Predict the structure.
Amino acid sequence: MELKGIGASPGIAIGKALVIKNEEIKIDKKTNVDIQAEIKKLRDAIVLSKRELEQIKNKVAHEVGEEEAEIFGAHLLVLEDPELIGETENKIKNETVNADFALNETKEMFVSIFESMDNEYMRERATDIKDVTNRVIRHILGIKVVDLSSLDEEVILVAHDLTPSDTASMDKEKVQGFLTDIGGRTSHTAIMSRTLEIPAIVGIDNATTSIKDGDILVFDGDNGVLIVNPEKSIINEYKEKKKVFEADKLELEKLIGQESLTADGRKVELAGNIGTPNDLEGLINNDAEGVGLYRTEFLYMDSDKFPDEETQYQAYKKVLEGMKDKPVVIRTLDIGGDKKLSYFHMDEEMNPFLGYRAIRLCLDKTEIFKTQLRALFRASVHGKLRIMFPMISSLEELLKAKDICEEVKEELSSESILYSKDVEIGMMIEVPSAAIISDILAKHVDFFSIGTNDLVQYTCAVDRMNQKISYLYNQFNPAVLRLINLVINNAHQEGKWVGMCGESAGDEKMIPILLGFGLDEFSMSPISILRARRLIKSLNEEDMIELAEEVLDLESAEEVEKYMDDFIASRK
Ligand code: PEP
Ligand code: MG
């Protein structure tokens, strides 16, 4: 069987499927049960859960950080609470009911007590109680809980989608590849798979329903083709492909330490996109010349409360120090749209991507924004920091955000806290209105970074997560190309530099056009950096200026894509 999705992260994967289904917990009340047997079930399930949580906690502490491991420590504490367990055992004895039912009732009682407390910290504990008791209930019912952090064998994960905490805690040695039902090239799971350098295909409509645990899978993360239970000859073919891929990787490593220059000597900056300080390793291994986008929202999404100033300061400091004197662009919180926080209520919206998100939310909830800016400016003494605001759509928003930066700097000065005076302030160009007035905006920033993932969705009015209309989501759309060209020209007119941190920056069919437009910095998944350097070294800037002019004369995305396919093919 052959299935097709969207190639999200390059590489060849060969392995056994592990299908992750979020089975719903169904609890029935049973009466007149064997009391001793039910109490034993409860106690056994608690022992199993504790063992699991200890393992996860140690692993996360070791591989991710003590701070991130704390949540599992909190879960362990819940399981040690004599009241919760005592109450459940009493229920089993007094009402002669089954263990899962009794524990569920106790859970609901505790959750409602905690949720009604005034203290926010105590209210948040309700979530821990729910999580941990559900883990025990699953064990009582014998529902398999796939623990991604301790896998016994090498697998290819098949899931509806993966959350940032799934990917943060997963055993990277054992996971040979990912396959998901939903998502596109710019969805967060796709971006994460590239950061982890794990081959992946996303958006295979029915992956979790048509693939079974243990099926043998082979796929190529570049073209998005998956074969289920292939014949031996196909497996051998993929083994060969894998060897070629590995050999090319070794070839690319020879470019480490070399400058990113075109054949006629124009220097560009090749930077990397990261989601957490742990991604630095991949960035350094791939010889990034800086961080072009640090998506700080993961710091918020992986937490169970707003990260405080100190937590944020430590994360930013780690990245700045890790990059030594190389520039680091840190984007302020970009939440909303498809990115939610479990601990922050956002109203349902008709059009969340056009709604209350990113800078709009930060300018409304200034206390959240200021905490982040304080942490950023404090961290600025540890490296070369550039701050950038997401989703700016008007001059007013930019000026307000800059005013708040000034306020924060004044506060820090009055508290005698040091910060660097050389922090560059820039903004993302993701919204057509910002691109169109980029001549005005350029006067008020040090740089722009073009976010094509969103710029394509807003310019073409096509939801980047919706597979049904994904044929309309095209970076080669002449409208998008004209906007990119306009933004670069406007910025250069004001003597400002322009980067790109959307996925187009690492795409070999876009790079020649972007070079021709004069883009200064290309920021991409670390895995793409050396491939991009090889391509750039083989191109002449003069020729690319001509190529870009010709491309701008084309009338449709199809024509541009065909032109670029032919261009790339002619060079091989
Ligand atoms: C973009 O929109 O291009 C971008 C880089 O931001 P994100 O993918 O995080 O929305
Ligand atoms: Mg964006």
